[in-house]
Fold this protein.
Amino acid sequence: TYLSWFELNQNNHTISSFRLGKSNNTSNVYLNSSLTTAGPISAYGAYVGVSGNITSTANDDIFIKGTGGWNDVEVSSAITKTAGTGTLTIQSNGRANFSGAVTATGSALLNVVLWSDYDGDNGDGGATFSGPVSTNGGHVWMGGSNSNGGSYTWNGLTVGDGPSVGGSNANALDFFNSVTTNGGDVFVWAGNGNGGTNGIASN
């Protein structure tokens, strides 16, 4: 399913929420065109590819979930919060890949959670962070799950209960760009690389 199939925000109206796919969706989802929403945004699929820019203009969260394993979430576009407070969660049963840009502007605050290996099988996970993040006071967490759906609460955010663990011949966690929080906390948790770099690989 492709976002570009739909015409949104016509007649100068901004939609108040958006969801593409359900939590049990086994089809691929592509957010391949720009999306602006004054409320929650979510996308679920066996694979979720985000190549269109996303803008959140009010309080609420952005949730992107891939369930297919391996590289089942890839975000390569800009995600911007222009007002309100919320959390961007990129959650993958396999490897979570982020190469876009996250920015909170003005009075907005955006927490960021990059969560790999949600199913806890330690076989196809890991995380790649290679795009700049600026949260304007929001917290940033990167890691994985020790068990299927394993989670805990950190700084009021729901996050994984384990490190990011690399899949076959993959680094545990690639940290290849900058994080600016203006007072927010940063927690980066990386484990074994399974043939790649153990811990945090940086450039």
Observations:
- Residues 45 and 82 are 27 Å apart (CA to CA).
- The longest strand covers residues 85-92.
- The mean pLDDT is 94.
